């Protein structure tokens, strides 16, 4: 990676609580993401994947180290980072379009521009015909597409995604993976993606980072050299299975000494 990294995490440490009740969640995390790189964090529950993502998003503080985006320290939430969680976090009293417009207005866009930008991004996620629907009228996959459209609408430099497809059924999850990879391949932005699904991580990522726990640390990194654009037929290929097995072996080795 040349130039200033899009994301640079150095010596990151995080402890919850204090005294005898203190729990060290992360210790000496070092991670760099390049411009337009798609990186997934995987590992057993409790290893600190979501904590790292929340820190990068500026939603949690940390005790040690530094976190830089484009060379600047993260000091709180910012429009340079879009965030998508497993829960859809849509405002139920607003339509799909209005949910996106709400984020655009908060980002300082002029009211007259918000509708066009909202419609542009709903089209990007194939929801043009549902722009006037309320969240209660949308399926889980549709709600998540609105959340992605909203996160992309103010043109962040980085997209942070925490188990965004974890609550969806298998078919919808595959459709969302295809949609996300298509958007990323067309529009290219840096993505940090947290998932428990190793197959999903292999399918969408340029690189997979496996975390260990007690406390959370980076255990191993895998480059995913599968060609793009990705498609579901790749999942059974020897190359795909080899990466998947390697990642699974690294996760299963959690019980072994680091």
UniProtKB/TrEMBL annotation:
InterPro entries, A to Z: AAA+_ATPase, ABC_transporter-like_ATP-bd, ABC_transporter-like_CS, ABC_transporter_ATP-bind, P-loop_NTPase
SUPFAM superfamilies referenced in this protein's UniProt entry, alphabetically: P-loop containing nucleoside triphosphate hydrolases (SSF52540)
SMART domains noted in UniProt: AAA
An annotated Gene Ontology molecular function: ATP hydrolysis activity
Source organism, top-level taxon: Bacteria
Keyword Protein biosynthesis: no
Keywords, comma-separated and alphabetical: ATP-binding, Nucleotide-binding, Transport
Residue ranges of every copy of the ABC transporter domain listed in the record: 7-238
Family to which this protein belongs: Belongs to the ABC transporter superfamily.
Protein name, UniProt field: ABC transporter ATP-binding protein
Organism: Acidisoma silvae
Top-level taxonomy: Bacteria, Pseudomonadati, Pseudomonadota, Alphaproteobacteria, Acetobacterales
